[in-house]
Amino acid sequence: MKDKSFYHAFEDRFRGSRELIKSRLRIYLPFIIPLKAIYDDCRVIDLGCGRGEWLELMADEGFEAHGVDLDESMLAAHKAEGLSVTKADAMEYLQALHNDSVVLVSGFHIIEHIAFESLQKLVSEAFRVLRPGGLLILETPNPESLSVSTTEFYLDPTHRRPIPPKLLYFLADYNNFVRIKLLRLQESPLLYGSNGVNVTDIFFGVSPDYAIVAQKSAQKEQMSLFDKAFNEEYGLTVDDLALRYANKDQQLFAYERERWQWLESELSAAKVRFDMQAVEIPSLRDRAAQLDAQLSASKDQVAQLDAQLSASKDQVAQLDAQLSASKDQVAQLSERSQALESERKRAEWLDRELQSVHSSICWRITAPMRAGFDLYLGAKANLSAIPQISRRKIGSIISPLLIGSIHFAKAHPSLKAQALKLVHMYPRLDAWLYSFVVSKGLVDCCTRVQISSHGFSESSLSPYARRIYGDLKDAMEKYRKEGF
């Protein structure tokens, strides 16, 4: 800490960081930049250059900046950074400059450190050395701020007394500066918010610093380059804050009045709605009673529908059972229909075969045989009444006829095949002929196998036909044993 001078360390502690100060100084750039449009060489003198923030900013903007200060430790830091500085008394250095030799003379927080007579001379000398259109910038604490004028100003032991803004403004005007702008600086950004100002802001929210930017006369076209910057308003005064506070009260009062009027209108509307609802209450009660009755009736209907639904479910279950039984019956009928269709087709086939047999030569040839058999069947009922001798006489008459027919058929193979086919169609005839030919010795027993197996299968008969066929075989065997 002791490597710095007291005032150097004091500024580091209480004024703010170099970056903060440099950012605050940018507010002057709109005033200064137009100078580069008027002059090619723009020499700037900063009196009491301090830590050099302004010199750095001017160098960054392309100005030829030179600083003057008496603090050796601050100057050593500037020289190390390559800034142009001189250790000298600010007034003496200013008096040594030529007339119309610089475009800008600045002094930031220097005039509160000197006597008023020195301040008068400084303003006068600055006017002398400035070129036409040149600027004088002087920044100092603002005594309009209650906190500055009562405490903050006296924190720096080198301060003499605060300079009121109007006094400094008048001093520049007295020394023939044609245009002067008063800038109030460093107020809290919160004061520009939507929350407005409080009573304490009127006393402590005023801009804590202010500056004047005074311009020396020049040609009208040159002066117009600075119009925009000089026409702006900067900072907050006590009057500004008081007016805003008053406006806030007025706005608050107007808001409360509007809110009260709104509440009254809402209350009136609520009363109207209440009266209308009071009139509607009896009808609403009647309507509620009707709805209750409808609800009760609906419940009864729902109960009835539930009962009907239950009965319908039972009916559906019964119908499902009937449908299942009907499906079984349909399946059985389908099977029977298929069986009947098979029997019908077989009957048609047998009918065709019978017609074929009836139209065949074999049928005509075997007519005597069939006639004898029919004669036999016709007389069978009376055989028991005919004596044994008479039956044998009848048999002796029929037997030669049958034997002759059999020999004739055996002599003609094609006729024999057709005769066998025909005989096999009549199981009773087939069985009787077999018994007859065997008893007469016309064929042996093994021949029967051939005859019976040719074109006939007992398994192909229906159950009813097989039963009849069995009865015929038993009857033929019985008749054979009795004498044929």
From TrEMBL:
Presence of keyword Metal-binding: no
Entry-linked CDD domains: AdoMet_MTases
Coiled-coil regions listed in the entry: 288-350
Keyword vocabulary terms for this entry: Coiled coil
Entry keyword annotation includes Coiled coil: yes
GO MF assignments: methyltransferase activity
A UniProt-annotated Pfam family: Methyltransf_23
Protein's recorded name: Wbbd
Originating organism: hydrocarbon metagenome
